[in-house]
Every structure is written in C-alpha cells, then in structure tokens.
What we know:
It is a single chain. 54% of the residues lie in helices and 11% in strands. The longest helix is centred in the last third of the chain and has 25 residues, at 171-195. β4, α5 and β5 form a beta-alpha-beta unit. The chain has helices spanning 12-24, 41-58, 71-78, 86-105, 123-134, 150-160, 171-195, and strands at 4-9, 28-33, 61-64, 110-113, 140-141. The protein has one domain: HUPs (Rossmann fold, 3-Layer(aba) Sandwich). The radius of gyration is 19 Å and the shape is globular.
Amino acid sequence: MAKKLFLHVCCGPCAIMPILRLRDEGYGITAWFMNPNIQPLAEYLRRREAAEICAAKLGIEILFDDASWNLADWLKIQLPRVADASRCEWCCQSRLEAAALKAGELGFDAYTSSLLYSRYQPHEAIAAKGRDLSGNGGPEFIYRDFRVDWQEGIERSKDMGLYRQPYCGCVFSETERYGKKLARLVRAAKDMAATEK
C-alpha cells in the first residue's frame, strides 16, 4: 500500500514536478493549498485556481485552507521582519509547520512542500525546518531537491496553460519585483524637473 503523502502547494507551476516525482516513487499524494502570504486577494485567487487546475490535470486531490488567508493578521506578523532576511525564511517555515500539523491531524504518513522546487526560496532553511519537525513524532518529512527539475517544470506549466506568477507572493516581494521600475520613473521625473529650472 502506498504511503500517504501530504504535499503543501505554494502554486500550480511549482507543484508539477514534486507531484510527478513523488508519484513516480509510489506515494499517494494529496495536495494542500495554504498560503496566507499571497497578496493581494485577487492574486491569491489566481494562484488558487492554477493549483486547482494543476491538481485536476495530474489527477490528484487538492484541499484548500482559504480560512487562513487574513491580510491584517499576516501583516502584523511580518511587518517587524521586513528589514531583515528572516522574513522569507519565516514565511516558508511557518507554512511547513502548518503542513506538518495538518498532515498529522489528517493521518498522513509523510509531508513535504512544493517550496522545495523554487530556486528563489530559502531552500536550506526549509529543509532544516522539515527535518526538525520530523523529530517530533509526527508524519515523516520527505526531503527532495526538486530544483533539478526547474526547467522541465516551467515547460510543463506553460504546456498546461497555468497562470505563472511574476513575484513570490507577498506585498514586499511584489515591491522588490517592480520597485526598480518605480525608481526609474521617480528619477526621470526629478531629471525632468531639474532641466525645467
């Protein structure tokens, strides 16, 4: 009988290769979309839909924890971390903690996260947190470095027509993604004002 594996899914595109690889290993996979970090709400809903489409196309069940999305609560926790590197680590680790807890509650043998696929996530911190959580007698943490499948995952997500997000998820990562464009506009306005003097 296949081990039941609970897969935290951060988005549809990042879920493809973990699902395929883990299924090839014989795991029975159930996906779980729980991402209170994704903002604004319209973006959350787009990524939720892409995760649902991905799960349907790959023939696995997906559960949604939409009740965990609360912008005010999430910002209260994250605002003190904005200026330091712990922001991203905490964000990923907190979702992994939630996945371990939920996997235990639902009686799964093991759990992991599609966060281990992305080249942009704090991979070592996620893996370390998973190993620490496994020592608590709950479901086993399954570590795989899915980053080796990066390009194949991109190509498959495009073939599936999945929405591919342009930033990690939170308003801070969105600002980092588009901040340079705004800075150029501000500089151009200053330069124009200076030439008009």
